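Collaborator request, handled under Task 6.
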Amino acid sequence: MEKHLQTSKFLCLVLRHAPERIGIALDANGWADVTVLLTAMGEHGHRLDKAKLDEIVATDQKKRYSYNEDETRIRANQGHSIAVDVELALAIPPARLYHGTAARFIESIQRDGLLRRNRNHVHLSADTTTAVLVGKRHGCPVVFAIDTARMYADGHVFFLSENKVWLTERVPPRYLYLLDMVPLCNDEWAH
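Structure tokens returned to the collaborator:
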């Protein structure tokens, strides 16, 4: 388990969703001044120095954060619910990507597709293992495969974030296929 998990979660909240929570502002590209961030985090009960911030950035399993070249600014790589342009690179996706979610959402996803909801993009994984881990965060996991080759051919746009998460605006139901994986709601899966 991550050494600074609570601080990292709060940092994620601040840099992706609610910078005003600690009285800071992000620029148009989602960057926060590191010195201002460290001071504001401390003033709101999350003591953080540059060394601890460096450790969080370096050890975050999902590689959520990036520094600018001289490490004077930091931002979340993707997953924002606020309007920022994190300068995502347009990319040609692999033929298939995956989306992990909870079993209770199967019906609505099959009806409506994958919607970005309160985020700027729908998040897609390059492999089923990652998709299962994502799905577990929401309950008993299931995985949808996405025919991204067909989506791309049909004019849908894809981005690849710095931490290798695939992003798109929406995945209509016609491109989705529920994988034949039996959820056991623990660490095992049957195929």
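The cover message to the collaborator said: "The chain has two domains: 5-76, 92-190. The first strand starts at residue 32 and ends at 33. Please let us know whether this matches your experimental observations."
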